[in-house]
Amino acid sequence: MGRRPGAAQGARHQLTRARLPLPFPHDSKRTSIMSQREPIEIIDTTVNSGTSMSPFTWQQKYALAHKGLDHKVITGGFTTIKERSGGRTDHNPCIRDGDNWVFESLRGGDFVVADYLDQTYPELPALFQGQIHHNSVKFCDTWMWLAIVRPWFECFILDYHDACLPEDRAYVRQAREQVQLGGKTMEEVQAGREDRLPGVSVALEPLREVLSGQRWLGGDAPDFADYAPLSIFLWAASLVGTPPLAENDPLRDWIERGFDLFGGLGRHPGLKPLFGLERREGDPPLFIGG
To answer: Glutathione S-transferase UstS-like C-terminal domain: from which residue to which, for each copy (predicted)?
Structure first.
């Protein structure tokens, strides 16, 4: 979200390695592939609590876990992306797979890294079950970005700033206020969010309706149809200063199970509570039946 001018400043990053449980039974073909290749590197966007912020990075982590591909996370903030990517980008979330650098587009519904993984490793469990499934996931993700991410971004923009690494905050404030907030301050945009949050919760009703009849958006087992929206909730959990969803929201079961996948991939002590929004007098129901 936004573009950073100039060269990297205040480099602060470290290398962490992730070996996640395989989501499917052991097979010799997958073991052979993993033993012959170096871990894929994720260029992370880390906040002050130590957790990942970017929903694109969360998508990458879930996609790699689903594929059973070993990876390592190169942590750091916004102002060190250029350094950590070897000067290839100063703002795009990306991965490095050997000699291949793959960059996300920063647009909802553009699953650049996920598509690369399915095309490059077709013998491993697929993230998308054909073009029709891919189109459906793209539609859902585009809707989530328009109906949920955009209003939540405005409701939590100052929290977003405060969650960032201290050395990133000046850049984040300048870039977001000038490019994405039309010259308004973060304080101005976030003000009054208590009046707006109930409406965003109501907007999630289509997701609740679909999940009321099935365990996963992917059907009997999770796939990228689940990982894409789960990554948006993880983005929110990395920064929110107040919970955006009711304590008894029907989405809670699916979100909790999604965070528990792959040995608790979506669990990090730096994540903030998503549940606890209270309905005030005069507010609409936070969900149907709520």
So the answer is: 141-241
